[in-house]
Amino acid sequence: MGGDLPEMAFEISGDLAELRRLVRRFVDTELIPIELTSCENDKVKSDVMRRLRAASSGLGLDRFDVPESHGGLGLGMLARVIVWEELGRTVAIPSRAEDFFGADVSPTLWALGPEQAEKYLLPTIAGQIKWCFAQTEAEAGSDPASMRMRAVRDGDHYVLDGVKRFITRAHEADFAEVVAVTDREKGSRGGISIFIVDMKAPGVKLLRSQDMMIDDRPWEVAFDHVRVPAENRVGEEGAGFASAQRWLSAGRLRHGAKACGVIDRCLSMAASYARQRVTFGEPLANRQAVQWMLVDAFMDLHQLRLMVHHAAAKYDRGEDIRVEAYMAKVFGDHRSFVAADNCMQIHGAVGLSRDLPIEKFWRDQRSMMITEGPNEVLKTAIARHVLREYS
């Protein structure tokens, strides 16, 4: 599925079109009907998750993003963004949620050596252990060069000291992928490394969880003189930042795909309500102000899908998609928030209520403009590319 791809995939057909129909039907029949009652305390209820996993297994999409060599389907990126887009149409599962199509596997783990893969990667794929990613700090969010977490070599170990915050799932993780400075002078250009750290190791301490406007309760985590075996370093020393940026391209593309789903659903809800709601003797759909909101969302969805599918096709050909991923995230996160905001406006007071999923889309998509690279930071990176290309 996803085979040989043309230079630009303007239309989805064949196996990919069938994949879209399959997942869309699953979202429409299994997720949307329960989306207002599926979660409790920011997590999918255990009985609901069991039902969803049983239902999803019938689709044949278990471990769809895991390589065939490790027992997965090994779907290409274009196929994956189609799945992510359709799942983006519902708030039945938290936006940073468990994946009922199989265990969530961090891209970092694919870079592990054989022994560490046996210890961390394979059990993660099997759903036996969980992970968290620890990069953000109080003084180093979008600016990793300011990171204070240190990893100092001591024989066949590294000693880690520092505090991370906004770490999702830290309280239930068996291990953390910790980003730390190994060479202060080199900074992000060869001085940052990634380590696998057992969360029960001496010196690791959960400090506090933080209430957020979204369905996420991330943690602040202290690493106090934590000794980590040198073999738990991911890749070469100093290569952590460059590796993370490559992995983040897929994550940013996922932002764009999810945003497609959000715009699609908000457009559907807004158009339907605008036809039904009558004010001052005529439907909202007859008012130009409302029509223009719908048209903006429609055009945004078309543009975003082309951006995301183009980037995914390039990724599947093995090409660098950093700039395309930046654009998909910046445009997608912003325009999906605008779509949710306009959908809320069209619905009026009921759009503010939790009787509809609109307020959840609104909160989630506002948060997406900050996570995995604030839009302003990514625009600066795009600007550097533009100035090189048009010098």
Largest sheet: 4 strands, mixed
* Contiguous uncertain segments of 5+ residues: none
Rounded to the nearest angstrom, the radius of gyration is: 22 Å
CATH superfamily of the largest domain: Butyryl-CoA Dehydrogenase, subunit A, domain 3
Q: So what's the CATH class of the largest domain?
A: Mainly Alpha
Q: Estimate nothing, just give the exact number of structural domains.
A: 3
Number of helices: 10
Mean pLDDT: 90
The protein's oligomeric status is: single chain
What would you say the CATH architecture of the largest domain is?
Answer: Up-down Bundle
Number of strands: 12
CATH fold description of the largest domain: Butyryl-CoA Dehydrogenase, subunit A, domain 3
> Could you tell me the strand content as a percent range?
15-25%
Give helix % range. Answer: 40-55%
SSE order? HEEHHHEEEEEEEEHEEHHHHH
Question: Strand order, biggest sheet?
Answer: 3-6-7-10
Structural class category: alpha+beta
General description of the model:
The chain has 391 residues and is of the alpha+beta class. The chain folds into three domains: 14-102, Butyryl-Coa Dehydrogenase, subunit A, domain 1; 131-238, Butyryl-CoA Dehydrogenase, subunit A, domain 2; 241-389, Butyryl-CoA Dehydrogenase, subunit A, domain 3, CATH 1.20.140.10. It has helices at 14-31, 46-57, 77-87, 114-125, 240-276, 288-316, 322-347, 349-352, 358-368, 375-389; strands spanning 39-40, 43-44, 131-134, 150-154, 157-167, 175-181, 192-198, 204-209, 219-229, 233-234, 278-279, 282-283. Strands 3-6-7-10 form a four-stranded mixed sheet, with no helix packed on it. Strands 4-5-9-8 form a four-stranded antiparallel sheet, with no helix packed on it. A hairpin with a 2-residue loop joins strand 11 (278-279) and strand 12 (282-283). Helix 6 (288-316) packs antiparallel against helix 7 (322-347). The longest helix has 37 residues, at 240-276. It is globular, with a radius of gyration of 22 Å. The protein starts with 13 loop residues before the first helix and ends with a helix. The model has no long low-confidence stretch (mean pLDDT 90).
